[in-house]
Amino acid sequence: MNKPAHLMGGFTAGIAAAKYIAPTVTENGFVNGIAGIGAVLCGAILGSLLPDIDHRQSYIGRKLKIASFIISKTLGHRSVVHAPLVIFAFSALLYFFSIELTSPYQAIAKYFVIGLSAGMWSHLFLDMMTRRGIPLLYPLTKKSFRIANFKGGGIGDSIANTGCIIIIILMFLDFL
Ligand SMILES: [Zn+2]
Asked: Which of 81, 142, 152, 176 could form a disulfide with 170 if both were Cys (CB 3.0 to 4.6 A apart)?
């Protein structure tokens, strides 16, 4: 999937995270505020691009050159940072760090991490629809798994974008 499809996936995942997940982790209803929703969405947008940090020519790879160089050289593209277990562990680690912060930074950081995680999961899901797939069961095996066989930038991106728009509309209409 290309960058626009990943951004769209991240945006959709961010709205879902703001609607369903963020309200469950706090008592003060902070996520109802624009700042809370903004933190979730910013995290989701970043998260939707972040896994491609292992690819030096990707958008995020060009922005974070040094980190991308190190990760691509040591881990390779679509390897460890495209593995669900690693994304889960990374999200959990950041979440525990955010809990250590004091208020009000804690709330902002928590929502940002929730969004970031949602964005990264959307990235993995979309990459699973492509030919290269993702290392779904890493570290058990490095074998790639996929649920579809699309090429980046092709009809798969259009299907993903259309699907995201439909999901967003359904969420706004409270059907989801
Ligand atoms: Zn990717």
From this structure: 176
| Residue in this structure with the two tokens 């996929």, named with its chain if needed | 146
Neighbour-count burial of 157, counting CB atoms closer than 10 A to its CB (0-12 exposed, 13-18 middle, 19+ buried) = buried
Q: What angle separates helix 105-128 from helix 3-16, to the nearest 10 degrees?
A: 130
CA 21 to CA 174: how far, in whole Å?
15
Tell the burial category of 147 from Cβ atoms under 10 Å away from its Cβ (0-12, 13-18, 19+): exposed
pLDDT in tens, 146-163: 999 998 888 999 999 999
- Within a 10 A sphere around the Cβ of 141, how many other Cβ atoms? 10
- The model's pTM is 0.93
Residue positions counted in the chain: 176
Residue 168 CA to ligand 1 centre (angstroms):
22
The one-letter amino acid code at 124 reads: L
Cα of 70 vs centre of ligand 1, distance in Å, is 17
- The CA 104 to ligand 1 mean position distance, Å, reads 33
